[in-house]
Amino acid sequence: MHRSTPSSRAGKAVQDSGQAVRASAARTLVPVITAKGSLADLDDHQVVTRDRALFRAMCYGVCRTLPRLEALAAQLLKTPFKARDADIQALLLLGIHQLLYMRIPAHAAVGETAGAARLLGKEWATKVLNGCLRRLQRESAALQAEVDRDPGVALLHPRWLLQALRQAWPDDWRAIAAANNEPGPMTLRINRRRGDREAYLARLIDSGHEARLCNHSPDGLVLDTPCDVQALPGFSEGDVSVQDEAAQLAAELLGPVLAPRPGGRVLDACCAPGGKAAHLLELFDVDLLALDSDATRLARVEDALARLGLSATLLHADATQRDWWNGTPFDAILLDAPCSGSGVVRRHPDIKRLRRQSDIPKLVELQSRLLDNLWPLLRPGGSMVYATCSVLREENDEQIEAFLARTAGAIATTPQELSWGRPVGDGRQLLPEPESHDGFFYARLKKQG
């Protein structure tokens, strides 16, 4: 009679946990690979605590390498899975990603990924997955060489996006693609109302977190190793926030406009998730109206301001309309416009699947409507900062060029002597850089009075 020992029971528990985290990851990825959802609300609480980092790494890793994984899956399968088996397709992608990109023993990557099909109620798929993944082990070099003949596969981007990057940045498009394929660093913004960044850097080091000062933002720090925000000293008390360095530079452009006008009236249009609004309130004495059309995201802005001990007027409204405006002009407007997100692909790798080439003209038209609708709300002599997290020029310098051409009394005042980015038209463009900032565009405009 066989009796299980404590060690054998522990081994089975680990295996069951490994299958469970892969099954959960597959369920999470189905909306992404079918272009029906995103990773925006990824919930890692569906897996046990010890597996949460693995769960997130697998979900984000698959999205980051999706073009290549799908090309390899097509080589490995005799016939594609049916639409109702998108969860099994997701498991296959997870298995390929583990074998090629993660430091997971091959036997675990194959066995536990195939075994996870049982937890999805599809035991028939275990044999298929096992066969595909073992073939990849045997023929890895040849299969990879075959699919990498397609530049989109080799560079892990959809073809249309690679073409758009090449057209916008003929000397930099490969570097942009490479930066997009690496996870972005965890960057912090200290709350200057509660201390300076040199003092906070010392606190980080004392608590075991190595970090360095950002090159361009005077309030930014970059962690050597990402961590849970609750592990950051003083996070709950509002001493620090997570925000990419490029996003922190909005305050630098608005600063010269706001500093001489204590109590100035400022609009942050399209404000969610609230990082730029919070930064302005940390630095300047302003009357801020933060507006967004998404009520759920606006609630997160409220939570962020409450943690930081800051106050603003929050309004759920559409910035392409004016029915919310009380008629009092603003001294400054920050328009962080909806965009392609082509500068933050490394933080949102599901963009590679969810964004379409046909989206770009629609976004350009929306940005144009926002500019035209908000400009009359600015007082004569006031300034607007237009920002996107895009590297596509039709959303950025070309958008501003068209706005200036059709708008009497609007002039560009973007400083040319800035230490960051590069001048493009009447604005400033940052391209994503490994271990540094995301891709962003800024232009500052003034209404002549």
Protein described:
The structure is a single chain. This protein is an alpha/beta fold and about 450 residues long. It folds into three domains: about 5-155, NusB-like (N-utilizing Substance Protein B Homolog, Chain A); about 185-240, 2-Layer Sandwich (Alpha-Beta Plaits); about 245-445, Vaccinia Virus protein VP39 (Rossmann fold). The chain has helices spanning about 5-35, 50-65, 65-75, 85-100, 105-120, 125-145, 150-155, 160-170, 175-180, 195-205, 245-250, 250-260, 275-285, 295-310, 350-355, 360-375, 395-405; strands at about 185-190, 210-215, 220-225, 240, 265-270, 285-290, 315, 330-335, 380-390, 410, 420-425, 425-430, 440-445. Strands 5, 6, 7, 8, 9, 10, 11, 12 and 13 form a nine-stranded mixed sheet that branches. A hairpin with a 6-residue loop joins strand 2 (about 210-215) and strand 3. The longest helix is centred in the first third of the chain and has 28 residues, at about 5-35. The termini are far apart. Mean pLDDT is about 95; it is low at about 5-15.
